Structure prediction request, 491 residues.
Amino acid sequence: MATAVVPKSKIQQSLALYQSSIGKKYVVAITGALLFAFTVGHMLGNLQIYLPNAEEALISYAKLLRTSMEVLWVIRIGLLTAFVLHIVTIAQLYNLNRSARPQAYVKKTPTVSTFASRTMYVSGPILFFFVLYHIAHLTIGNVHPNYQEMNPYRNLVWGFRQPLAAGFYIVAMSMLGAHLTHGVWSMFQSVGFNHPRYTPLIRSFATTAAAVISLGNISIPVCVLLGIIGKDVV
Amino acid sequence: MKLTLNVWRQTGPTAPGKMVRYEMPDVNPDMSFLEMLDVLNEGLIQKGDSPIVFEHDCREGICGSCGFMIDGKAHGGFPKTTVCQLHMRHYKDGDELFLEPWRATAFPIVKDLMVNRSAFDRIIQAGGFISVPTGSAVDGNAIAIPKSNSDRAMDAAQCIGCGACVASCPNASASLFTGAKIAHLNLLPQGQPEKLDRALHMVTTMNEEMFGSCTNLRECEATCPKGISIENIAIMNRHFVEASFAHRPTASEAGAG
Prediction:
């Protein structure tokens, strides 16, 4: 029979907090919040492609981000840590949840849960591979057909003229939208914020933010494929 | 009306189980679901087969004994309804239904549709109580409780421990049950002395009993026969983390305690 064990030392206490499923959910929620903030910023940066002089704007934006490489690396390492913690923690919870029900139901019918919320374990791994590909494609440029250092505009247009690459971006950004519709409201619930007055607003905010980020990013490869963006690139 | 039932038959906790098909040629729409199973069992007994085992007691929807999955939904998935209060008029002539026990590591199957929910009892033993002084009862009105707190505590206290939350959760999480039991006492003045220990001990026991973690899908809230809100899970999460940080050794440092 199981009995509750109260942790003795401070280290044991912090470990017990992380070992508990609730502590893990806090980690997923807080790292998720950081990654969400990053997707907002990244999308706003991307949308500069619609400015009148997009090539200039994007080059100066790239220079702005690299004002201090030290600061940039601190942010990159911070994001990488959040990214790794988010995935490792949820993978541990995934294993726990699978072992909590080893024998599946013959028939199981979902009632109120959304399709997006039930498929976080699908959208998540796709996004993981997307991030790896995206860094190799447009940051490092080693899987890019025609990579030019410090010219995001041309790299983007050349990159998205390949329908397969553009297609993967569109699929991945749809997955990001689905992931965020559940994740953005869910992080509030996980850290213990649920209030009849605010939770409906948070849910609407999550859906809206997910749609804006997802569609804002999808519009770029679509516009390149349609020839709206990149007329000046030959 | 005519019904076809596919019922999970399993002779014991370690025996392999399987779905068995039963034809019900004449079901009265006024029967409750359990009465319909009683009729089926009468027939099985007359034929010399073993009856389908299912748990039941009050048949008024208040004891929390009954419950199984009907067509993949806990208690059949009707709002605020236990399976004993579910009537056959909700089904159509010719329907085919699938009946399965709650499935979770923490709820081993006893037989057929009956599971062992002792894990819930152990969560309650870990902290689902308050300490009261002996002697004459305190004047009830002497303790001021904000109306909204007493309402929320009473809503949480409605939990009958049937296990539908665990059964309907894709992760077999007991967060709604544990959250309701913690919130019920932690929202009231009488629950304050043990507030943090309660959160710490009940959550720790919940984890040790091998329930899954909450992924905020809200399936539990939708199938709970008492309509308990996942706001209680948020309360549990807050109080557990607060307890994890605030917990201190039992002996006071100056030795006066």
Notes: Chain A touches chain B through 53 residues (CB under 8 Å). Chain A has a mean pLDDT of 93. The CA atoms of residues 188 and 194 of chain A lie 7 Å apart.
